Amino acid sequence: MALSVRDRSLLDFESRWNGHGAAKEEAIARDLAMTPARYYQLLERVVVDPDAADYDALLVHRLRRLRERRRSPGSAPDAGAAPGAVRTGTSR
Asked: Which regions are flagged for Low complexity bias (predicted)?
C-alpha cells in the first residue's frame, strides 16, 4: 500500500526540520494543523511503514536509528517521554 498524502507530507515536513524546538512546534501547528504531540505520534507510525523507506530512505533510516537509541537501555529520554524530557533515574 502506498503512502497517503498525509504520510508523505509528514516526511516532507520532517526532512525540512532538524531536531525539536519552539519554531518547529509553531510550524507544525501552522503548516500541518495539528499539535506537536499528534505530529510525533503519526510520524512514529509512518517510520515503520516499508513504503516510507521507499519514499525517503535517508530520512526514514535516520528516524529509525534515533528511535532505537531512545529505546535502548541507558539512553535518555525514555521512548515514551516527550521531546526534551529528562530521565529522573528512578527505576520502573
From this structure: 73-85
Dihedral of CA 30/23/11/70: which sign? negative
Instruction: Please tell me whether the overall predicted TM-score, pTM, comes out greater than 0.90 for this model.
Output: no
- Residue in 40, 44, 52 with CA at minimum distance from that of residue 4: 52
Q: Considering only CA atoms, which of 80, 83, 88 is closest in space to residue 17?
A: 83
How many whole angstroms separate alpha carbon 36 and alpha carbon 25? 6
Task: Summarize pLDDT for 28-83 with one digit per residue, the tens.
Answer: 999 999 999 999 999 999 999 999 999 999 999 999 999 999 888 765 555 445 54
Q: Which three cell numbers stand for residue 79?
A: 521512548
Helices then strands (H, E): number in the chain? 5, 0
